[in-house]
Design brief:
The chain is mostly helical and about 220 residues long. It is built from nine helices and no strands. The protein has a single domain, classed as Alpha Horseshoe (Serine Threonine Protein Phosphatase 5, Tetratricopeptide repeat), CATH 1.25.40.340.
């Protein structure tokens, strides 16, 4: 696994891998959302990341990771409908702000990036752990990333730990009763279904980790 800091090339690769994994799991995400939501999560995300892909050629040669993340944020906010656009858009925007103009991100910066993204989702959606939302994937990811960074792990290792924790967190939403969003209207009937936002979050964080492993 690569051990060095992560630059704009990593961020661009993360975008490409995100678009690919969202496209690959589009039907799955639609199905998950149809069970407890309005069924548009996979379609909206696929359209959003497709739009981001179309703008990658405009990324300047001297772009920073923050520049790439800001491009993702503004594009998702303008193209993705439903709750996902504002939530993910805010996440990427806060992440971009957290890393500023840094050309390369060390482990601490990566952990901070993830925390800022999670905090942006919380600020926008007002959800907390246990509400059966994407926060149930993001918070374990943030905690795992901070722990790995604290023990001196590489940026790639920090992201791998975050991705593993997010996947486990998404799976752990299945027995929960939704307390936020459209799924909350179902009450007890939301139990037994995985939250689509938590699942898509896990896929996006795995894309970040895979890009870092190849950086």
């Amino acid at each position: 696994m690569a051990g060095g800091p992560l630059g704009a090339d990593w961020a661009v690769d993360w975008v490409r891998r995100s678009a690919a994994t969202v496209a690959e799991h589009r039907v799955e995400l639609i199905t998950l959302d149809r069970e407890i939501g309005d069924g548009d999560h996979g379609e909206n995300l696929d359209r959003g990341f497709g739009a981001v892909l179309g703008k990658l050629d405009s990324v300047a040669p001297d772009a920073t990771p923050g520049d790439v993340l800001k491009l993702v944020a503004t594009t998702l906010i303008s193209t993705v409908g439903g709750a996902a656009g504002p939530l993910y858009g805010t996440a990427y925007l806060r992440a971009a702000t957290s890393v500023g103009s840094e050309a390369e991100l060390d482990s601490a910066a990566v952990a901070k990036l993830l925390e800022a993204a999670r905090d942006g989702i919380v600020a926008r959606g007002k959800a907390e752990s246990g509400d059966k939302t994407m926060i149930d994937a993001w918070t374990p990811a943030v905690e795992a990333a901070a722990a790995e960074a604290g023990r001196g792990a590489s940026p790639a290792e920090v992201l791998a730990a975050a991705a593993d924790a997010a996947a486990a967190g998404a799976e752990a939403t299945e027995p929960l009763v939704a307390r936020k969003g459209r799924a909350s209207y179902l009450g007890e009937r939301s139990r037994g279904h995985r939250d689509p936002g938590a699942q898509s979050s896990a896929y996006l964080l795995r894309a970040a980790a895979d890009a870092a492993a190849e950086a």
